[in-house]
């Protein structure tokens, strides 16, 4: 029996790669076999060739979008965890913050795009704000659920030994909440990229969303698919980094 703790993740990665290769082979066969036009479904080989020829522009666009996503992701994560801490340490705030956060999240994030673009302009700032809004609620809910898992008897025991509020937070609340906080961080990676790309399509000076919008305007659907492929790779890379971080920090799971 294997005792390698990384074996399950390696097997999952191998299955994912095999499934992706199989999907692309079927895609290529269908597109070529049925001679489908590019505006319906271009062949994978055609998309890969476009990625190679437009690699400089697509690489710059991906870096632009990733910059917005990571900045908004970090800001939204800090806001979400900070609000959860406030609610945990000052319980009366729960009756104010939780309903307000739920009300904001009940509206699709894209609905705020026109206002955010009007307030913060067409540059990166508006995309960072949009991503932060999208990520903060997910992180708030995950962190709050983690803090709520703390057994109050353990808190009272630490208080009886003279532990300060900061010591209880650092030594008990945060370690208990960490698995759910990191799980929320992992789930938020994909959402952050989606929101950044959609907002770029509504108004931007660069990024993958802007590339997709420009390609649609000139009816270049191969370019659209090339940008989508790059966005998927960027999302997988972002997700992978956070998943690796989660495994390192929550090593006892």
Written description of the protein model:
- The protein is mainly alpha-helical and 253 residues long.
- Helices cover 80% and strands 0% of the residues.
- It has ten helices and no strands.
- It has helices at residues 7-33, 44-53, 55-89, 94-105, 113-120, 124-148, 152-160, 165-202, 208-217, 221-249.
- The longest helix is centred in the last third of the chain and has 38 residues, at 165-202.
- The radius of gyration is 22 Å and the shape is elongated.
- 32% of the residues are buried.
Observed structural traits:
elongated, 10 helices, mainly alpha
Task: Describe this structure in a few short sentences.
This protein is an all-alpha fold and 253 residues long. The chain has ten helices and no strands. 32% of the residues are buried.
Protein topology:
Blueprint: H1 7-33, H2 44-53, H3 55-89, H4 94-105, H5 113-120, H6 124-148, H7 152-160, H8 165-202, H9 208-217, H10 221-249
Question: What separation lies between the terminal Cα atoms?
Answer: 20 Å
What is the N-to-C order of secondary-structure elements (H for helix, E for strand)? HHHHHHHHHH
- What is the mean pLDDT? 86
Low-confidence stretches at least 5 residues in length (pLDDT < 50)?
A: none
Rg value? 22 Å
Percent helix: over 70%
Tell me the number of helical segments per DSSP (H or I, 4 or more residues long).
10
Structural class: mainly alpha
Largest sheet: none
Find the count of extended strands (DSSP E, 2+ residues): 0
In one word, what is the shape?
elongated
Question: Strand fraction band?
Answer: under 5%
